[in-house]
Amino acid sequence: MKIMTKKQHFYHIITFGCQMNKNDSERMESILQSMDLKSTEMPENADIIIMNSCSVRETAERRVYGKSRNFLELKKKNPNLIVCVTGCMPGRDKKGGLKKRLHGVDLYFPTRDMVMLPKWLSELNPNLRPIDLEKDYLTVVPRTKNKAQTFLTIQTGCNHFCTYCVVPHARGTEGNRSLKSILDEARDLASQGCLEITLLGQIVNHYIASDPEFFSKTNPYKKNDFAKLLWELNQIEGVERIHWTAPHPMYMDDEVIDALTLPKQINFIHLPVQSGNSEILEKMNRRHDREFYLETIKKIRAKKPDIAIGTDIIVGFCGETEEKFQDTVTLFKECDFDISYNAKYSERSGTVAAKAFTDDISKEEKKRRWFVLQDLMVDIAYKKNQVYVGKQVSVLVDTYKNNTCGGNSSEMKRVNFPGKKENLGTIVSVKINRAAEWILWGDML
Ligand code: 5AD
Ligand code: SF4
Description:
The chain has 445 residues and is an alpha/beta fold. The protein folds into four domains: 10-136, Methylthiotransferase, N-terminal domain (Rossmann fold); 144-266, 2-Layer Sandwich (Transcription Regulator spoIIAA); 299-384, 2-Layer Sandwich (Transcription Regulator spoIIAA), CATH 3.30.750; 392-444, CATH 2.40.50.140. The chain is built from 14 helices and 18 strands. The chain has helices at 19-34, 58-74, 88-92, 97-100, 117-124, 167-171, 179-191, 225-234, 254-259, 278-283, 290-303, 322-335, 352-356, 363-386, and strands spanning 10-15, 38-39, 48-53, 82-87, 107-108, 149-153, 155-156, 175-176, 196-200, 241-245, 268-270, 308-315, 339-344, 392-401, 404-409, 414-418, 427-435, 440-444. The strands form five sheets. It has a five-stranded parallel β-sheet with strand order 2-1-3-4-5, sandwiched between helices. Strands 14-15-16-18-17 form a five-stranded mixed beta barrel. Strand 1 (10-15), helix 1 and strand 2 (38-39) form a beta-alpha-beta unit. The protein is globular. The protein binds 5'-deoxyadenosine (5AD) and iron/sulfur cluster. Iron/sulfur cluster (SF4) binds at residues 158, 160-162, 165, 167-168, 202-203, 248. Iron/sulfur cluster is lined by residues 158, 160-162, 165, 167-168, 202-203, 248.
């Protein structure tokens, strides 16, 4: 008798952009694995390819167009291949202009519609097994490869409408998850061995709980739900490190700043500034000025003097003269940032900036300013990292190769040291003996 074996189907996911997208891709992995599909690193072996797209800058969208052409080519050899695009591009593409440039793609859907994947995929390929899912995509438990470090999305969308930013258009207005669902997920993660949780939200420190009755009576914070949430997460046994991104300076009130001293809080904060010039900040609709940002950094350092600080900066925004750019340079020096994600302004259709302002800084000048900041950042990072030489840092080990372990310190500095495979997924103490701009070397204690 001939035994029929079912063909194993494979998926390949490629993720562009931010950590929120990475977390969403983990949810899609979870859905696909529930449908008995297996992951493959090789797109040519896949039955389903999903591109989780980013729209923040034009270059990110261009990469999706390029990749999709390559993937659609694969259909010639494998006509059953299903190519999908999700993420911010379908999210912001209200008029379908972007979709036209992705001609041939089989499924094109905003992130929240990922719960429809089983139905749509099984319609396209009847050999695939549909499964039932709840309507809210946030209820899909992300499939994480690394159990020790996980993302936890607490908020979706954004109401802030910074004039340059496509996120509110692509991901909708702010929605906060219930406190109970966040705490349940965090406890679950802890019970599965999670040591580090990274909370995700577009303005993570504007988190508002719809069910505040789940805050403990003993919670010391009274005003800010995000500070309260941080305290609750600090009480969960097993979790060792709490990280969050990205906060907005406006909501860095005294309670959130105080929460930086909670025992499990990592020794790092990423606080986007975007520009050091108050007029540009106003034009960006950031709703704070240069002085407010500097004051906030001062307050943070007063509470936690050795905290590492990161930021996001856009150079060459509409109307940014050389003098205004120099305000960013001086702010950068004053803040002594450990790291900065510097971006050249990229006009995004649909945003207020695209409608109301002129993208008047040339490509070359944006590039020049970008290099000025990159050079400054490298100098400062090198100088700041020398302080760690001779000191001890705690490292959550996430890589191992050729007897060398790597991981992030609590300051989110990359650390390498001689170690064993067993160190993977554990937190170890490392004494630093050498430091470069982006890496510290040391020996395990
Ligand atoms: N052009 C360049 N950079 C941008 N960012 C957001 N929108 C744009 C844009 N239109 C940057 C901001 C933000 C980060 C996620 O991306 O610095 O903080
Ligand atoms: Fe975009 Fe501003 Fe919202 Fe951040 S706060 S996601 S930059 S609109």
